[in-house]
Automatic annotation (TrEMBL):
Organism: Dactylosporangium fulvum
Domain HTH gntR-type residue range list: 10-78
Pfam family membership, one: GntR
Gene3D superfamilies: Winged helix-like DNA-binding domain superfamily/Winged helix DNA-binding domain
PANTHER family: GNTR-FAMILY TRANSCRIPTIONAL REGULATOR, MANNOSYL-D-GLYCERATE TRANSPORT/METABOLISM SYSTEM REPRESSOR MNGR-RELATED
Protein name per UniProt: GntR family transcriptional regulator
Amino acid sequence: MVVIDRDADRPLHKQLVDILRGQIDAGVLPPGSVLPSEIYLAQTHGLSKTAVRRALELLLNEGLIIKTKGKPTRVRERPQRKVVLLEPGDEVNARMPTEAERRSWGMSVGEPLLEVSRRRGTVDFFPAGTITLRAS
């Protein structure tokens, strides 16, 4: 088990982020699984509830977890990625979506929205976490 290093220069809540991210990446906490409770994480790692909440907020902003009021925090399912071909003259801009756009696209908090302005005059929108851009 990885432990929090109180003597490290890295803030305690970011050390917890690193631990949880590592468990998610390694499959110890697979997509859809329930994260341990804030109280459990605080007790297990010797942290305050505030530090645990800050860590979970960072993971939420990274799109790694989903928090729903009244339900346990879960590891976010990783969507199938779609390849979007870019043609010469196409431009891509990233921006944060409005709240309405975020809800309509089913995007995580902190996930950018990509606007692909096509040379032919159309504009396509894509949640950044679901696509891979490839030049044709």
